[in-house]
Amino acid sequence: MPDIRMAPPLAIIPARAGSKGIPGKNLRRIAGKSILAWTIDAAKNSRHGLRVVVSTDGAEIAAEAKACGAEVVWRPESIAGDRAKSEDALLHVIDHFASNEGYHPALIVFLQCTSPLTAGADIDGTIDALTREGAETAVAVVPFHYFLWRREPHGGGTGINHDSRVRPLRQEREPQFLETGAVYVMQTEGFLRTRHRFFGKTALYEMPAERRWEIDDPVDLEVAEVLLRHQIAESIQLPAPPAAVVFDFDGVMTDDRVLVTEQGVEGVLCHRGDGLGLARLRETGIPMLILSKERNPVVTRRAEKLRLPVLQAIDDKAKALTDWATENRIDLGRTLYLGNDLNDLPCLRLVGWPVAVADAHPDVRRHARVVLTRPGGQGAVRELCERLLGPSLGLESKPVIPA
Of the ranges 21-30, 98-107, 175-184, 203-212, which one carries the lowest mean pLDDT score? Predict the structure, then answer.
């Protein structure tokens, strides 16, 4: 058995550019990050110190992989088609490092980026199962309790994993497991010999069923988004303290509606509870800013009420944010930006902590690392303040209509 402490595993993530079922699948964003980025992050969170490599034939995928901290090995066209085997990509990466660096990892960790809910703990669990059981290969699985059937040539159906005349209780059935497609671990020497992911003794790691979801069809993206959002809500830790907090105005501090009087005076509805949350956040000394494209005086009035600096009538919000951060020596990588609509996307892409209100545009939700539970103008700002500072007083509402 290789001593993996002396030879850290090599994690390989195959990511072709030519997906047909879901075009551009590997770069599709869910819950704030691309599918590829979720898998890279999981590999980087492994306690085994993995060397993380993406095998690809696509320039955009390569750029995303590098931006996420992974290495890239370019895949030749001969193993980049629809019928190319994953094993071919793995073997190509191994040969690349052996030929160019003399690098021979003890174990290979094969990760599929179509399983974005995979956690670092699942990778570690699969590696540990191989080591603990003295196995040559290991695979992540989940318990399987369903009855399988097949169609017969003459018609009708026959039970595959059960006698259809017997309906045993779940606890009475022999345990069976479903291969998740998320994590495979192989001893490198045996893999090079057999050229297949399963050989010798195979250890099973049971990963939590809620992290099993695999992206094959468009609807799978929607399900994965819901599962990831739930996972994030339970585990996300906002930076403490952030370098700065920046707010859009319409749809964030308001409910995105406008009140127009007969005289043509415009007003908006804001949430009174936001004021107390911002007052407490202001006491920490964290820089804050309202950044708005709106040219209405209502923005100035509300900013004065909240005692927040404001940049408004801004057409290029990303440039304004960058200039403000540079002038004030603020690290955008530790900055939160709270937005709701498409014109916020350039700013959301600039900061390390893009945050969306609950009723944000779907594209904004997909780019956000955190989606709040409250809509804009209905306590979303207060919720963000409380998540940064801890719970305070209850929320109450009152319209803000300027004179």
Answer: 21-30
Q: Does 210 reside within a domain?
A: yes
Do residues 255 and 224 both lie within one domain?
no
Place of tokens 């850290």: 8
Among the three residues 234, 255, 289, which one is the final residue of a domain in this structure? 234
215/66 same-domain check? yes
Mean pLDDT of 392-401: 38
Predicted local distance difference test score (pLDDT) of residue 392 = 41
- Assess if residue 84 is contained within a domain: yes
The average pLDDT across 152-180 equals 87
Whether 402 shows a pLDDT value over 70: the answer reads: no
Query: In the listed set 184, 208, 234, which residue is the last one of a domain according to the structure?
Result: 234
For residue 95, the model assigns a pLDDT of 95
User: What CATH number should be reported for the domain holding residue 167?
Assistant: 3.90.550.10
User: What's the pLDDT score for residue 4?
Assistant: 43
What domain count does the chain have? 2
What is the per-residue burial (b if ≥16 Cβ within 10 Å, else e) of 228-244? bbeeeeeeeeeeeebbb
Instruction: Give pTM, 2 decimals.
Output: 0.62
- Mean pLDDT value of segment 20-30: 84
